[in-house]
Structures are given as structure tokens and as C-alpha cells.
Amino acid sequence: MIEMIKVGRTYDPDITALSDISFSVETGEMFFLIGRSGAGKTTLLKLICNMETPSNGLIEVAGYNINKLKGKDLAHLRQRIGVAYQDFKLLNDRTVAENIAISMEVSYKKPRAIKNRVRELLDQLQLVDKHDTLTGELSRGEQQRVALARAVANSPRLILVDEPTGNLDASTTKQVMELLTRSNKAGATIVIATHDESIYQQSNHRIMELSNGRISSLTRGGKA
Question: How many domains does the chain have?
């Protein structure tokens, strides 16, 4: 699903965010990206979804060189990628339901299907009572869950998640990981950037650690 070969990203005047990044993520894999703040995790996710372009190297997503796609081809691929950003990027003057529905509306899903999917996700994340609440009135933890629901709503082939549990307690973290695991079992490839050791230490998924913009290790979780 994802192939990176010798990818680097620098910013003016001379700041190296990523250097010599080479790895692959298989279709249907759940993959954890860890490292301290500033290690390059968020930049890496932005490169994968083409929010930013690499300074050098090759990035392929679903068999396409994502940085060479344009117009309809790029729009089509982006519809198959769900992203839950660390800063949420919600429409604060829209309701929770409207925010979650957006990705399905642009794919021309039927209104009844959209309504049912929104209800299903709100139920899974214990946000049913927030259906008609403006997202600007939610707590950060609630906004975080809405951002995740929006990312998975359209059942994308690839889901990128940046710090999905940073504002959540243990019980809500469990709900979030159950939702992501459910999406993964349904066939989605998932890349999770996180500081939260509790969500990957006991898994059997691969874990890649970044340090100062470089890969420092690539291991597998400890679960037998």
C-alpha cells in the first residue's frame, strides 16, 4: 500500500525534517509510527497523503507515484485515504453529524446510508448525544473522536491517524482502538503516529521509530 525509497524533506532555510526514509507498509497492515515530538512523524504522514511533497526520494501509494498524480486522478486517490489530523481540522460551525458526513457526501453516498453510518460511528464512540452539537462546542477529547470518525466514515483503503489518543482516558482510548481495529479487519491499511505506548506495546503489529528525522528501529510488538 505504501512504499517509500530514500525520502527526504527539508524546509527553508536549512531544516531537515526527514532524511533517507525507506520502508513499506503492506495492504491491510496496521503499522505504528513512534518517536519523540519533532522526530518527523507528522511530516511523514503529510507526505503519504500528499499534503506535502518530498524534497527527494520516491513515494508510492496504492501503486501510484502520489507526487505525479494530478487533477481527477489525485482527487480519486485522496477519496480513498482517510486522515485524522492532530489538530483535528474540523468545521467548527457545523454539527458533529455534518462533519462526519462530509467524506461520504463528496463520494455521492446515498443520504440514508450516510445517516446510518454516522449513527453507527457515534454509537461506537459514545457520542450519540452530540449528533447535533456544533463541533466548536465540544471538548478536545470529543473533537478528537469526531475527527477519527470522519476519517473512517467512508471506509477508505488507507487511514492515517496522528496521535489518536492524546486527549483521551483509558476507557475512551480502548473505544478508539476498537474502531481502528474494526476498520483494519474490514481491509483498511492503517498507519498510526503515536506517543501512547499502551496502544502498541502488546500488539503484534510492526513499529517504526523515528529519531531526528531518521529511522532508528523497525520492530514488531511484543504480543505472541
Answer: 1
Is residue 102 assigned to a domain? yes
pTM of the predicted model as reported, rounded to 2 decimal places: 0.91
Asked if 47 contacts 61 with a C-beta cutoff of 8 angstroms, the reply is no
Domain that holds residue 102: 91-154
Amino acid identity for residue 182 in this structure: R
C-alpha cell at 134: 456544533
Who contacts 4 (Cβ-Cβ below 8 Å, separation ≥6)?
A: 21, 22, 23, 24, 47, 57, 58, 59, 60
Residue showing cell 518517536: 35
Residue 121 in any domain: the answer is yes
Separation of alpha carbons 62 and 160, rounded Å: 14
* 22 is a domain residue: no
Torsion angle of alpha carbons 47, 151, 154, 124, nearest 10°?
150
d(CA 204, CA 198) in angstroms, rounded, equals: 13
Pairing of strands 158-162, 15-25: unpaired
- What pLDDT does residue 27 have? 96
Residue 167 inside a domain? The answer is no
Q: Where are the alpha helices (DSSP H) in 106-168?
A: 111-124, 140-152
Q: Which residues are within 8 A (CB) of 198 and not within 5 positions of it... i.e. 6 or more apart?
A: 165, 170, 173
Q: What is the pLDDT of residues 29-87, one digit of tens each?
A: 999 999 988 899 999 999 999 989 999 999 999 999 988 888 888 888 888 899 998 88
CA nearest 195: which of 214, 174, 167? 167
